[in-house]
Amino acid sequence: MRDLYDNINVLQVLAPQTATSAKTSAAIDLQGYNSALVTFAVGAPGDTLSSSVYWTLSLQESTDGVTYTPVMANSAPDVNNTVSIALTANGQGNQAYKLGYIGSARYLKALATPTGTMTNGTPISMVALRGTAGYSPVS
Question: Does 9 reside within a domain?
C-alpha cells in the first residue's frame, strides 16, 4: 500500500502539559519497525528564552529498555544528522519539531530538557511515529 495511513503507527508518548522541568516520553518500542520519528509540539514559552534559558529536544536509545544513551548522528536519517534541537528564542514557540531515528536499538525515548530557570513553563507534548514496518498494513 502506498498510503501513509497504513504504513505508520502513531503513539502519544507525552501528553500535553506546561513544563518547567525536564520531560521524558514513555518508552517507544520499535520491535517490528525499522524507523521512527518523534514530533515535539511546543507552545508559547512562558519564560523568555535566550542563550542561557532554553529547551533542548533530543532522543535516547536503548537495546534493553533499561539503560538509555543519547542517539548518535549516524542514527539520524536527515542530511544534517540532527540529534537535538535547541529552542533559544521565544519565536521558536508555537511550532512543531521533529527528530528522526533509523538506528538499530529496540527502544527509544524523547526528552525535553531545560537549561536555566523555567518559572512559568512551556507547553510541550510528544508524538511518536513508527514506520518501515516489517508487515503492512500497520494497525
Answer: yes
Residue 61, strand partner residues: 69, 108
Contact 99/65 with Cβ under 8 angstroms? no
pLDDT per residue as tens digits for the range 49-73: 999 999 999 999 999 999 999 999 8
Is residue 139 domain-resident? no
Q: Residues 73-99, buried b or exposed e (16+ Cβ, 10 A)?
A: eebbeeeeebbebebbeeebbeeebeb
Query: Considering the entire predicted model, what is its pTM?
Result: 0.94
Angstrom distance (rounded) from CA 17 to CA 23:
10
Report the distance separating Cα 135 and Cα 113, nearest Å. Answer: 35
